[in-house]
Each structure stands twice: as structure tokens, then as C-alpha cells.
Amino acid sequence: MTLRIRAMLRAQQRPHISFHTPGHKRAGADITELSYSDCLSDPHGVLRDAEADAAEILGAARSFFLTDGSTSGVFSMLWAAKRTGVSSVAVPAFSHPSVFHACEVMGLKVHTMSQDVHRGIPVQPTAEAIGRALSRADALLLTSPDYYGFFAPLNAARTLAEAAKKLLLIDGAHGAHLHFTEAYAGRYADLWVDGVHKSLPAMTQGAVVSARTEALGDLLREGVLRFRTTSPSYPILASVEYAVKYPRNLAVERAAEAFKMRHGCVKNDDWSKLLFPVGEQGARAQALLEHEGVYPEFYDGNYLMFYLSPCTRLRELRVLGELLETVPHAAVSDDAAAGTVPMYKETP
User: Would you call 304 exposed, middle or buried from its count of C-beta atoms within 10 A (0-12, 13-18, 19+)?
Assistant: First the structure.
């Protein structure tokens, strides 16, 4: 599939005297919105076509590229929800801070669904809990997959939302790589966000926010225009398009699932998240790994998390497996601090 933004940038690599932003004056790919590069706030050329391609791939009526991360997408879709008449939203306790910040800014009442913690890991709400929370709120916002690689009960959530004629929003920031599968947020949500930089080969801050219908897409565009930067990075935009169009890597997916079984990782739902129990020995284990040049995503007091993507090499998994056989680890228990990853602490 054509990479439209990259092709445009390459075609324009010629002598260029810059009397425009950015201030480094070196042109190249890091340009502003010029006569040939389209305008993200009102796209009519290459950016319009790239976003249309993404919408088709993701199963959306409308998709919008973001260079501000998933946070601006969360704000944008909650703006759209409010514009439909939503005044309250049911959300899990261990949601990303942007969810609560956006509700605060938008004046939306939050109905928090409590979540159990099992062996230091927040448990996704049950369908019954979702149904109870949705009965008190105008809309539902779930996180799927969560930071620990577990899916919300999306089929049940979709059924409940449709029966109640209420919107289902999904923070899918950690699940952009799932768009080939039935677990993808876009198969269930009315509005959803993909953090493509987290698990697909996009530059940091690259994301996409999407709407199921054209009517919601119009409202989502209003939110995007309010919360997305007016100075988008073209290298990030090009990487977002590249990431959405990146092919599936079944070899790595299969190797990751085999790795979990072989090395005693937590059995979670998402192949891209290897959750290795280390207990109170985690700081020592992390230091030993980093001494060998291996850097995990986080250590939360109980687990080391290793993030994979379709770009992960099989030999890198083999190296990780060999090292995990040598690092210290201790038992994990519910007594250890739960939810210590800062972005997913339980809300008071």
C-alpha cells in the first residue's frame, strides 16, 4: 500500500530556502504546512488521503492522525461524546489519567467502576460490573488492552451499550497492533484511540483517533481541532501512516506466546506484553538486564514488563529468554504495592 506522506516528503527533497517554521531552517522532512504538504486542520490532499486509508484499514468512518499521543485522542472523543448529550461516563478505576483529566475539563461526571487486584495486577471489570455502572451513566469508556495485557469484555460491553442506546468509547492506546484481530477496539467501539507508537513502528507521540459513524466523525473532528496541536510534526505523521499500514508478523506473535509458556510469564491476553514475575527482586533483575543492554518497559514492584511489536526480532527474544534464566526473582503477592505504574494508579 502506498505511503502517501512519505512519498510527498521524498518528492519535495530539493534545494529549499526556508522563511517558515521550524526555526532550525534545515527543511528536509521536518517542515510546516506548506503549499505542497497539505494542512492537517483542513486536509484536502495527501493528508486527507492518508487518513482515509487509515479509516478503511481500522474499520472506521473517520480517522484522524495525532502527533500529541493518545491523550489528545481521549480528550477529543470525550468532547464528541459530550456533544451528543453525554453528561456522565462510567470508567474503570485503573484508567489512564487523561480520562479523568478530560472528564474534569469537559465537566463530565465520572462513575468509577472498582477493580479487583489479583497478585498485583488490576483485573478488568466484569460484564456485570459494566452493566451496573452503565445504568448510572450516559456512556461507557473502557481500556483494552490494559497496560498488563488483558482485554476488557468487549462483546458484552458492546451488547450492553447497544441495548441501553449509549456510547461505548475505548482507550485502545496499547492495542493498535490488534487491528488484524477480533480483539481490536475498533470492532466494538463508537469512538476509540490507537497509540500506534506504543506497539507499532511509529515515532513517539504518533496516534490515531477514530469514529464508527460519519455523524460521530463530524463531532470527533470538532474535538480534534480543539485538542490536537496546530503545528504537527510531518515525520511523526509519516510514521503514523507507516505504522497503520505495517503488515502483521505472525512469526513474532507465535514466538511470544511460546516464550510466555517457556519462561513462566503471566498468562495474559496480548501477545505483545511479556509480564515476568520478579517480586521484590525486580530492581536487581532490571539492573542486571540493563547491564546487558536489555531494557524493559517497566518494573512495578512485582513484575518486569517487556513490550514487543511486529518489529521485534526473534533473536532478541532468544537473548531475553537466556537472560531471564539468570536473573533473581521472588514470589509475587497481593501484599506488594499494586498499580504502581504511575499512569495506571487507581483513582481515589
Answer: buried
As a whole number of angstroms, the distance between CA 226 and CA 167 comes to 21
What's the average model confidence in pLDDT over 194-203?
A: 98
Enter the pTM of the model.
0.95
Backbone angles phi, psi at 107, to 5 degrees: 70, 30
Helix (H/G/I), strand (E/B), else coil: 26: coil
DSSP annotation of 248: P
Distance CA 13, CA 143 (A): 41
Distance, in Å, from the CA atom of 237 to the CA atom of 68, rounded to the nearest integer, reads: 10
DSSP per-residue letters across 65-131: EESS-HHHHHHHHHHHHHHTT--EEEEETT--HHHHHHHHHHT-EEEEEP--EETTEEPPPPHHHHH
Q: For Cα atoms 305, 307, 313, give the angle at the middle one, nearest 5 degrees.
A: 130
* Amino acid symbol at 290: E
- Please list, in sequence order, all residues whose beta carbon lies within 8 angstroms of the beta carbon of residue 145, skipping any fewer than 6 positions away: 151, 172, 174, 175, 178, 183, 269, 270, 273
Which grid cell sits at 193? 484511540
pLDDT digits (tens, 9 = 90+) for 65-80: 999 999 999 999 999 9
- How sure is the predictor about 23, in pLDDT bands with cuts at 50, 70 and 90? very high
**What pairs with residue 172 in β-bridges?**
194
Taking the C-alpha atoms of residue 58 and residue 41, their distance in angstroms, rounded to an integer, is: 21
Residue (of 316, 239, 262, 315) closest to 307 by Cα position: 316
Residue 145 scores a pLDDT above 60? yes
Strand-pair category, 167-172 with 191-194: parallel
Q: Please give the Cα distance from 136 to 161 (Å, whole number).
A: 12
Q: How many CA atoms lie within 13 A of 19 on its CB side?
A: 0
**305-344 pLDDT per residue, tens:** 999 999 999 999 999 999 999 999 888 876 544 445 666 6
